[in-house]
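anyone else get weird line breaks when pasting these?? whatever heres mine. first is seq + tokens for prot A
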Amino acid sequence: MFTGAVGYPQYYVPKLNGIVFAVGLQTIVELSPVVQWFFSLKIFTFIFRHIFTIYLIHGFVFWSLGSTIFIYLSKNEVTYWKIVLIVAVSCYSAMFLGVPILTPLVSALGKSVPRTIWTYANEATSPRKPTLYPFPNNFLFVRQAFVQDEGPEAAAQKDEAVVSTKPRGSFKKFIAAV
């Protein structure tokens, strides 16, 4: 039950206070006109259209741009609270400048990938062909080298004779016979 983090429980263990908070917040949003008005402000309606893109890129932005800025400012001995403020402003600015460009791409992928999967899942499968198609199944085992002085007709006759025989016994005997 306890982690090495000074007795805090595991994060995935459900707690009654978390469930009560989630149900209470959902109830307040559903029933309160003031909260509904607040979440209907223009900034929230803008964010709502791009929320999935923000979710997808926030980690990348903070771990790449944010950590680079943080390390650079730390080397220059800037105080911690200034570093955190600068990193937050720059990362959120980069995200909000990038989401109008990235949202159509994410939306297109979100629509086309499931559609393609559904199409392939509902199509009839193509007829099964042998693994070595268009070559015969025993192509790798019965190959014979072309001999210059015999000509192609003699080599073709040898190939037909070898193809017609099936190997019996061990693989080494078969290879020795060929």
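and prot B, same format (seq, then tokens)
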Amino acid sequence: MQQQASISRIYCLLFLSLEPLTALAGAYYAYFYPSSYLNLTFPGAPFNFLPDRLPPSVDIVLKQLSNLYLLFAFNEFVVLRMAAQAHPGATKVATMWGMEWRIVDSRVWRAVLTGMLIADLGHLWSVRSLGSAVYYDVGSWNKMAWGNVGIVYAGMLARICFLSGLGVRKVEDINGGEKKRR
């Protein structure tokens, strides 16, 4: 059963623009600057990865990571956008870029954002070997830590809010036609 919902403007900005752009940046750096990517991920490591001197296995893993960042960006920029529809005359929906947005199938958004929330948890778990301070010592974060932890925290919070119904209003059940509020 398809369900329509109106969404907060912040979700449009975050999920349809900002997060896909940050994922593209991650893909770009993991693919084209793998040594810098690794050195920033693990500052102070007893080794230093030199450009053009990466073991093939490490290079392959970073290319695969880049590919997953591209999938992340695609899911938000394309899939979520396809599950939303601009309605010029719609009322009480998010207005952004001169258009009013309504989710045509909120189940798609919920499914994609649930999968991304699971990925966020896995992403945070993956940096545990840097020590527990990586999760809370904001003053020691470099730009990679901001991407690996800070931006992930923000995305997780937004996904949890969305999945909890904050800033999401059911407009109607398309198949049943009944009006509901959440």
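btw re prot B: The chain has a mean pLDDT of 82. The first helix runs from residue 9 to 32.
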